[in-house]
Write a structure and sequence with these properties.
two-stranded parallel sheet; mainly alpha; disordered N terminus
Length: about 425
């Protein structure tokens, strides 16, 4: 009977999906990479990168490092610089994706197998079917999710601009590679008023800033990955949806049509994670850290470019719209582990870092990254002025009032600096006249 069912599935085109029931569900990563590569290929031309593109990026990184030296206390990393095609981005990031996805694939495979446990109806209708289908479904659960993961990774590869735009150290090497994806950068630049050189430099600035942050805070990258793993490991599948799909399945009528119908139902309803209280806590911490990273990058790059790059303000707004609307990174994490990022938190984080710089200077702002226990929390994003002053209020001020107060303080500080500069210039003029 086993051979007959396998042969039937093969005829239906499901053999590749269900695979070998004896295989380890999480060991079959070649198909995931292949799916991601096929998705990339379907997006259109993905030309190999050129020596000219690499040379242009290296020039941009050198200039970015020079500008950032005055905007952050974190030193340059001197890491490797690369330009990747979309397919190369998939290859370079796949080891880290595997680490993040594997706990979810395990949960899927166990849920599929558990759906058959205690199947008295199946045993009564067809003795031995439960024993056969359990390992088969366990294998298929991981593989069906693997196809979904490959689709999500390939979709992200077709739009992501750099190695760390997702906010995670995805390249997986000890010294993170600083990389842009020129094909996606060109698509991003299409329709923008800024020059190609300015866009490349602005993206290099953001990438260099992230790399400096990850290098200077060795706890940050591992904690981010651990949080994603922890969240994924706690995922539980909505077995009621699975049971609903299985309820219409007649084990005495093993036809290609009935099996295909069950497969379609499973793929449409299986992957609905139910958040536990522990997951919600992990998710809040993860969202906060990702917001703090991007908010810090926004703040540092704004400081680095304010004297040298007039187009940076418009490009910063373009990046904010990209995060809030198209959100390729957010969509991918939503599909893989149910992570929903909130753009509003990014703005709050940027405001907090700016307020810290005004109060404590660049080094004081960056010192906050020294240890995870002193990094701002979600509550601190609601009350950044309280965090800066060290007097956190029990209830944060209304967000609109808070934004207005921050804007007033920053404008006042800028006016004071302008007055000091004018005073210095007048003093120098008096000295020259007197001399």
């Amino acid at each position: 009977m086993m051979n007959q069912v396998r042969q039937m599935m093969s005829q239906m085109g499901l053999g590749g999906m269900f695979g070998d029931p004896e295989a380890q569900p999480t060991s079959q990563w070649e198909p995931i990479r292949d799916v991601a590569r096929r998705v990339v290929a379907a997006q259109g031309s993905d030309p190999s990168t050129s020596a000219t593109q690499l040379s242009e990026l290296r020039d941009a990184v050198r200039l970015a490092d020079t500008w950032l030296d005055g905007a952050t206390a974190f030193p340059a990393t001197g890491g490797q610089v690369a330009v990747w095609s979309r397919a190369e981005w998939v290859e370079q990031t796949m080891p880290t994706w595997r680490r993040l996805i594997e706990p979810v694939a395990d949960a899927m495979s166990e849920a599929m197998a558990d759906s058959m446990s205690g199947g008295e109806g199946l045993e009564g209708a067809l003795p031995g079917l439960d024993a056969f289908l359990r390992p088969l479904l366990k294998s298929s659960g991981a593989q069906v999710f693997g196809l979904q993961a490959g689709q999500a990774i390939g979709t992200l590869a077709a739009s992501v601009l750099s190695a760390t735009e997702a906010g995670l150290p995805l390249s997986g090497d000890a010294e993170q590679t600083l990389a842009l994806v020129p094909t996606n950068v060109a698509a991003f630049a299409d329709g923008l008023d800024q020059s190609t050189d300015d866009i490349r430099l602005y993206l290099a600035l953001r990438e260099v800033a992230r790399q400096r942050l990850f290098a200077a805070t060795p706890w940050l990258g591992p904690q981010l990955l651990t949080l994603v793993e922890s969240y994924a490991r706690g995922i539980r599948i909505d077995l009621s949806s699975l049971e609903s799909a299985m309820g219409s399945f007649d084990p005495t009528n093993l036809t290609p049509e009935s099996m295909k119908e069950m497969s379609d139902q499973l793929q449409g309803t299986l992957f609905e994670p139910q958040q536990t209280n522990e997951q919600k806590a992990v998710l809040e911490r993860l969202e906060t850290l990702l917001a703090l990273i991007e908010g810090w990058v926004d703040e540092v790059v704004a400081q680095a470019t304010k004297q040298w790059m007039p187009s940076a303000t418009a490009l910063a707004e373009t990046m904010r719209r990209r995060r809030a609307t198209s959100g390729p990174t957010e969509a991918t994490f939503q599909a893989l582990v149910g992570l929903e990022l909130r753009p509003r938190r990014l703005r709050d984080a940027a405001n907090l870092w700016a307020a810290l710089r005004e109060a404590r200077g660049t080094e004081g702002r960056d010192d906050v990254w020294n240890h995870p226990d002193v990094v701002p929390t979600a509550a601190d994003l609601d009350d950044p002025l309280g965090f800066v002053s060290g007097e956190r209020s029990p209830a944060a001020a209304p967000v609109d009032d808070l934004d207005a107060e921050l804007a007033r303080l920053l404008e006042q500080a800028e006016q004071e600096r302008d007055a000091e500069r004018r005073g210095d210039e007048e003093d120098r003029g008096d000295d020259n006249t007197g001399g």
